[in-house]
Amino acid sequence: MTVAPEELAALALATAREAAALVQEHAGRGVSVAATKSSDVDVVTVADRASEELIRARLLAARPGDSVLGEEGDDVVGTSGVRWIVDPIDGTVNFLYGLQEYAVSIAAEVDGEVVAGVVLDAANGRAYVGYLDAARPGGGVATRDGEPLQVRGPAPVSQRLLATGFSYSAEKRAVQAAATARLLPLVRDIRRHGSCALELCHVAEGALDGYVEEGVNLWDHAAGGLIARIAGARLVVLPGAGGTDLLACGPHHGFEELLELIRSVGFTRE
Fold this sequence. Notes:
By secondary structure, the chain is α+β, with helices and mostly antiparallel strands. The protein is built from seven helices and 14 strands. It has helices at residues 5-29, 46-62, 92-97, 170-183, 196-204, 218-230, 255-264; strands at residues 33-36, 43-45, 67-70, 82-90, 103-110, 113-121, 126-132, 140-144, 147-148, 161-164, 189-191, 210-214, 233-239, 245-251. A hairpin with a 2-residue loop joins β8 and β9 (147-148).
């Protein structure tokens, strides 16, 4: 079966909008923790579960032969060659505290390659959309609310604004904090917004010069990573100093400098 990435992106966007509306309904009623996962600070809310249930239902109703990989539910194995990668709320702790930086993230893989992705900024209603299209400059389309995205222009390392994040493990946080402390004097400044998917979109729209975080999962970065790459960024996964995968993303220009920087301050095991 052949399916156009643009069609998958359209389905992802419609589904993400519906899920974001559901998440906001939960926010209006008040948010509480439903469970914890890897540690006491790694939380799941009722809204996370409801959002993922809705997303799975809508995607499989439209495309019943597809597979689904989600953060909160069991994997669904299909036969179509298309797999959906779902984070029902990326930035759950922000959502729990009422901070306005959390998103619904939905990506579509075809035969193992991510070809479409949507990150719906649920708190602010902004829709980041990307899909591959060989006929387009850059190999695809990346937009925010329909407007094309492009990474920020070149800057020396000392004038780059970077973002990072921290593990739910106290031991890994100590390693990450030490690397961040060494990084801070070398760059313009560091931000930590709390949503991998949105951090990648901020790189795509030129609001950040780079992003590095250890411990993120595929559902955190599949959609945002595609959007960033189409907008002119590079993204790599490296062995992190804390023992898990580390994600680094930044504009194609100056990317090797970014990698050298994060290695030199101790983010990686390389």
